[in-house]
Amino acid sequence: MKERVLTGLMIFLVLVFSFLARELSLYVFDAFVIFVCIIGAHETSKLLAYMGYFNSNIFAIVYPILSYTLLLVTILTKTTLIYAVLWQFVLLIALMAINFVLHLLAKKTTNNEIKTRNYKESLTKFAIMKTLHTVFAMLYPTVLLMSLVLLNRISGIGLVTLTVENPNLLGLVALLFAFLIPIFTDMFSMLTGTVIGGKKLCPKISPNKTIAGAVGGVIFSVLIMLCIYFLLGAFGVFEELFFVIGLKFWHVIIITLVGSAICNVGDLFESFLKRKAKVKDSGTLLPGHGGMLDRIDSHTANAPWVLLFFVLLLVI
């Protein structure tokens, strides 16, 4: 218990530092996200290996760095969002091709791996399957968490021209939704589920999660995020920002309601991966908490939704 508390405190301090440091440079928060992506990709690669889905760990680890670099270039050059997505797709296809060709060129090494794994099909089919497995390790959680980079820089991606003193406050508000919704959902799902108990939500995947806990997590998250919205709105700088972007209290209800429900899906998906891999935790990086994926499963699912919501809010 002591180990879990200390690790939780460390996570909290790193997160607070990342939020505060973004006021000095947005690159600090970007670096935090990329670090999380790299560790998450490494753990995903290991989980797949435990399941028997052979993959290239090095490609999974390198992909977040290349993806972020390309994303940053498209943001700094004011490339439209659709082209930014297109270039990311091109990068993925290029890495797939390189991964596949490398397996074919390193014929001796690949054949030795085929023998070790007792694979019965041809070298070419092995290379294809390993490449496809690697793609999953590259995409999850990196592609989803890249939404945090876009949220961090949302005031500079050309969606809207903000007439406020500090445009970066928009990114701060968006990131608060991205991080606080999963935190409150997980916290109150556990508390409500423990107190009320009742029917299990999905016993075959996550035996400890209850329907009452999931509902309680959603309800309390909505109430707390509304309180935070009104509290921030009491400060002139945030009141002005909310007015400029048109953020109303019912927007907060929608984004939190949907986001909290999605957090439960993200949690169940990561639990599904661990059950398939027959492991308790995704890793050992965080003593008392498990691996990185164990801490960010809800955030990974929620981040793209928050990005979509704010894009629609600013564009429509």
Structure description:
The chain has helices at residues 2-21, 26-51, 57-76, 81-105, 107-116, 123-139, 142-152, 168-196, 211-233, 236-245, 249-277, 292-315; strands at residues 200-202, 206-210. It is mainly α. The protein has 2 domains: 23-151, no CATH class; 163-316, no CATH class. A two-stranded antiparallel sheet has the order 1-2. Strand 1 (200-202) and strand 2 (206-210) form a beta hairpin. It is globular, with a radius of gyration of 21 Å. The mean pLDDT is 91.
Outline the secondary-structure elements.
Layout (H helix, E strand, L loop, with lengths): L1 H20 L4 H26 L5 H20 L4 H25 L1 H10 L6 H17 L2 H11 L15 H29 L3 E3 L3 E5 H23 L2 H10 L3 H29 L14 H24 L1
Antiparallel strand pairs: 1-2
Helix pairs in contact: 2-3, 2-6, 2-7, 2-11, 3-4, 3-6, 3-7, 4-6, 7-12, 8-9, 8-11, 8-12, 9-11, 11-12
